[in-house]
Amino acid sequence: MQRIEHIYINGEFVLPHGQEWFDLHNPSTEEVIGQVRLGDALDAQRAIAAAKAAFPAWALTTREERIAALQRMHRALAAREQELHEAILAEYGAPAVRGRWMATYPADVIAQAIDALQAFEFEEQVGIATVVLTPVGVTGLITPWNSNAGFICSKLATALATGCTSVIKPSEMSALQTQVVLRALHEAGLPPGVFNIVNGRGDVVGEEIARHPDVAKISFTGSSAVGQHLLRTSADTMKRVTLELGGKSPTVVLDDADFPAIMPLVLQAGFLNSGQACIAGTRILVPRTRLAEFEKVAQAHVAQIQSGDPRKADTDIGPMVSQKQWERVQRYIQLGQQEGARLLAGGEGRPEGLHAGWFVKPTIFTDANNQMRISREEIFGPVLTIIPYEDDAAAISIANDTDYGLSALVLGTNTERCGRIARQINCGRVLINTLAHEPRAPFGGFKHSGLGREMGKWGMNAYLEPKTLI
Hints:
By secondary structure, the protein is an alpha/beta fold. Helices cover 40% and strands 21% of the residues. The chain has helices at 41-59, 63-79, 81-91, 96-119, 148-162, 175-187, 202-211, 224-235, 259-271, 291-302, 323-338, 373-376, 392-400, 415-423, 456-461; strands spanning 2-4, 7-9, 12-14, 21-26, 31-37, 123-126, 129-135, 138-142, 165-169, 195-197, 217-221, 240-244, 250-253, 283-287, 342-345, 363-366, 383-389, 407-411, 429-432, 450-451, 464-469. The protein has a seven-stranded mixed beta sheet with strand order 15-16-17-14-13-18-19, with helices on both faces. Strands 10-9-8-11-12-20 form a six-stranded mixed beta sheet, with helices on both faces. Strands 1-5-4 form a three-stranded mixed beta sheet, covered by helices on one side. α5 (148-162) links the parallel β8 and β9. It is globular, with a radius of gyration of 22 Å.
């Protein structure tokens, strides 16, 4: 059993002041596989002080110096891909394909930050004025358990690229991944204090970061409820805030769609990351005139989806991250039936043949409407809801009738029509007949899905303040 005892402050692995030990579980077996010692508010204060002391010198570094540092980070993370993959399998249970992507993504996002930095303009002439973009200062970076390593690296790389220093509060549930990333970042040889990592609870370490007057900016990825709390807390010290929060993303299936051809995209979008994804397409909007046909095709395809051991090559859906999350998903499956929706596939309990582990049957409800809680609330598991609609206007109305607005998918054969509908959906990203990702484009949400944007030049701007010189 692995015991992770140190946090990272001012370029050193140090024992935290905090005394609490947190158990780490393998979600596929429910066994305790490790423990991590959690930092407390004092540890967060020490990390913030280190980042504050390191900021003036780092803010004055050149573009070339920052690129060199990011390149060292990239090489160190790339070299630990297999080690990171093992940690992801052990403490998160991502299926093979997803797990491998999660293991390569941290190095990839650092490379993307390098590209963004190389092309970024920090000064602009406006009339007689020179506008200079200056780093905001110390940043507090708070990451989620469903992509912990990737978000540590994407947020940190962007912060460093802009000249900011950082205090990172990773998910305590992802401490094995954090440890792999931390060792790689240490090997990269950045100046002491430029980045600091404190394992700890959100209501302790995260709260101190949000309240502390020496933290100029918060970047948080996680639930909408926590994001709202951080926004309120950060207001007292006028922090800049970037929030990437929850979603209840619509997949709009048009009446000219080829159902057998698009069904793999529909299910991939919905069951992405075992359903534990803010962008998951969990509301499937289907023309009522073809509802029965769609249900038949969906039923046949979902029967081929495998939920189980993430180490098996044919597994599509791994376990939920924790017993708490498994119980949450089970309650929503019960609720959907109570609300009057009909189970097209899946249901309560573990998949057949699995007697341990936090596994969920791939579940699809139909005969649903957009007012049901299973249609409105983020479940964060492999549970999809089919909602029929009458025409394009109704589909757009249903797609937009949500508190969220992170992502959407439009599927149809007429690309011009798909484009018209996509432009009317109120969310930060709309995909048309694809699940492709463009890292140079902004990512973030409308409404309760967040504030601000990450990725590309938009992500860089979020860590900078414009200063006018005349």
